Amino acid sequence: MAKINILDSSVFNRIAAGEVVDRPYSVVKEFVENSLDAGAKNITVEIERGGKDRICVTDDGDGIERGELRAAFLPHATSKIERAEDLDHIHTLGFRGEALASIASVARVTLRSRAKGAAEAYEIRCDGGALGESAPCALGGGTAIEAEALFYNTPVRAKFLRTDRGEEGEITNFVSRFILGHPDVAFRYLADGKLVLQSFGGGLEEAVAAVFGAGVLAQCYHIDAIKHGIRLYGYLGKPSFAKANRTYQSVFVNGRYIVNQTIGSAIANAYGGYLMKRQYPFYVLFLCVPPEIVDVNVHPNKADVRFENNQVVYGSVYSVVSAVLDGNAAALDFIVGAKEGENGQGAPQGAAAGAAGGALSGAEPPADAFKKEGEARGQTGAAASQKISELPNKEETASGEPIFHEYTKDIARLQSTMSDKIGAEPGMEQLHAYAERPYDPIVFRDSAAGYADAGAEEAPPACPDVFAENKRYLEELERKAKQQKWILDNAVFRGVLFNTYLLYEEGDDVYIIDQHAAHERLIFDRLKAEMDARTVVRQPMLVPYILTVNAQERTFLSDHLGEIEAIGFDAEEFGGTSFKISAVPLDLQDIDLGAFFADLFAEVGSLRGIRLSELLRDRIAMTACKHAVKGGMLLTDSEKEKLFSMLHGDLGLKCPHGRPVCIRLTKTEIEKMFKRIV
């Protein structure tokens, strides 16, 4: 029997670091959370080379006494809790007491601090878990903690870090969330000496403007609602302000940034009737719930929480968001400044009307606009919202205090009134997305080859492929289709059907050509050949196009800027969160740049094993195909002849969407249709 070993602290701290500190952003997260828990009102974050070389967080918080500097580095040492009962009432961001010990085991950490009222500051160093002695240092107040050479003693972990720009993007993303989640705290964030983000602690409106720009506020509804003892407030984007990915979504539970499926599904389902496929809402929302009904200790880096009753949380969030979007009367109580006469302003338009161009500021129409917009959504949605609004809220409880457990008895009624409006349970979106993925037999063939290539001693047992015959048949059809090339030396043009289909006759065969599909394929082939040969000609723009992005999109573009330029774009960074597009491929001089980059950003965070250059080529080619002649467009004789000659007789082609360019009908097939022959 193997001997059971008691691990040394230097070993189990490194193991813990693998859970708590997986990348540089984790270090920034833990340091900033400690600063916030210490009551800091001014926090500065500095990084070098994406945090790999240096991470420094300085604050003006309470500081640490000299006698406790060494204890701060000990495992499971924390000032946040004292007893096991405190875990049921967590009011701080940190509480485990393992982060600093884990970080210090894989980096060179220097901690400087001056406690409030102390005469001088002291510092202590910890090099890979080896603690030094405290000594006096220069520091005005608060705490400054610095981590250098992250993962210097764990080269395996360092090898899997992303590029400097990639790690910087992740840190920028989290600093943005800290700015949004703590709008009363002033933040300064510098990367390689360059100021990236700054806020001044002036409130949520200023924080949103600092992260996303002031123009975002006009595209959002400012809400503040209390439902079933849960307070929900923040900014909801109008349906017209949809985004191409989920990176513009932020949810905070009791001040903690999380990614939670229950809340995310509730908001997504509320927006479901307003957004097109692959569009995502913008929101910055805060949930305030009693600490005893939420468990924040379910994830090593506290990225998610668990609620005592997910259905109550789901129903509360869904009812508020759907009421605002539907524009019914209940939204008057949810939208800040919406009540008639408040702040000298009238009642605002409903969200549905606002999405069509209404503004949230200035003089507003009467309150019955909410009812009209609710009726426009149909009786089902209105009835559901009305039923939900009848459930007890904070003001209607008998005791005057919201008790979360009192509302669980209403779940059955809540679900029955919402079932036809919700349309899907939380978590079903991912299941439907997986079910819609096309079947690709190549995946299984490549997987089997992967075992052989890996040289595994025991490959999984081969299962009989019941679709083998079908696959061989389909592959044979595809092979024949690729080899098919009709040479029409003596074809005679016979006319046009519906201004869409060109008719050609040769011998006993009739060829029907889809003019749009044919032109579409020709453009696709030409543009792809030019891209492969790197002969794309750029068209300079008279006025450059400024593309504003967030931190993750900026990282995505920066990592692949060379590939984008190789395709034919002239793009460069233009400020902290912007890119300047100065030229486009000549073939795409009429391209809608906003729509193109929105399609590209839909892949942010989802590209795994896909060559971006191929993806971009296809995206641009599809955009170019929009310039092809359309079905129903009347072509001149010269245009018909030119299109036919460009095909070079290769009528077995398909358009990029898979539709055939040409169909051949033989005389025999036609005579069978008319029963001339049997």
From TrEMBL:
Domain DNA mismatch repair protein S5: 208-326
Entry superkingdom: Bacteria
Residue ranges, annotated region (Disordered): 345-398
One Pfam short name: MutL_C
Compositionally skewed regions (Low complexity) per UniProt: 345-354
GO terms for biological process, alphabetical: mismatch repair
Residue ranges constituting the MutL C-terminal dimerisation domain according to the UniProt record: 493-635
The keyword Transmembrane helix is assigned to this record: no
GO cellular component term of the entry, any: mismatch repair complex
GO molecular function: ATP binding; ATP hydrolysis activity; ATP-dependent DNA damage sensor activity; endonuclease activity; mismatched DNA binding
UniProt keyword annotations, A-Z: DNA damage, DNA repair, Endonuclease, Hydrolase, Nuclease
Record flagged with keyword Ribonucleoprotein: no
Function per UniProt: This protein is involved in the repair of mismatches in DNA. It is required for dam-dependent methyl-directed DNA mismatch repair. May act as a 'molecular matchmaker', a protein that promotes the formation of a stable complex between two or more DNA-binding proteins in an ATP-dependent manner without itself being part of a final effector complex.
Protein family (similarity comment): Belongs to the DNA mismatch repair MutL/HexB family.
Protein name in UniProt: DNA mismatch repair protein MutL
Origin species: Candidatus Borkfalkia faecigallinarum
